[in-house]
Amino acid sequence: MDDLQLENREKLSRFYSELRKLSFPTSPISMELVNFVTTSFERYFENDKKSLDDSFSLKPKRGAKRLPRDFHLERAKRIIRLQNEGKTWIQVVDELAGKDGMPSDEREIRRIAERYRVEIMAESIKPEDLFDD
User: What is the top-level taxon of the source organism (predicted)?
Assistant: First the structure.
């Protein structure tokens, strides 16, 4: 570590110490925030975590990033709508591939449609259609 890094680490350590002294109700900062920050600093200074990003849990998790469920559901609705219009898988792929985050692989497009097909069908059922009068 260079001199600047040591100096900044010392400043963070003093800040951490000052935060630990705060108490309810005199603290101008909510105790929930104080506890979060002090616990994160504690993990950092006790070398449980390698960086402040790690100690504050700011680093993204390893592995592939997952897209929101609603994003996948909307893609599936587009695929199934085209199928319901009578389009073949090849036509569906030709129309959607590479647009708005849609994969260009037919197998992946089929997988998206199959994963949400039952849910999409259930959304289209009206309660009044379930029972005979």
Answer: Bacteria
Q: How far apart are CA 25 and CA 77, in angstroms?
A: 52
Tokens matching residue 107: 């197998």
Measure the CA–CA gap between 103 and 99, rounded to whole angstroms.
Answer: 8
Residue matched to tokens 């010392």: 10
- Closest by Cα among 67, 65, 49 to 57: 49
Statement: residue 101 has pLDDT above 70: yes
For residue 31, pLDDT beyond 70:
yes
Number of neighbours of residue 95 by Cβ within 10 angstroms: 13
17-26 tens-digit pLDDT: 887 787 767 7
Give the number of residues written for the chain: 133
Report the distance separating Cα 81 and Cα 86, nearest Å: 9
Per the CB < 8 A criterion, the answer to whether 81 and 116 are in contact is no
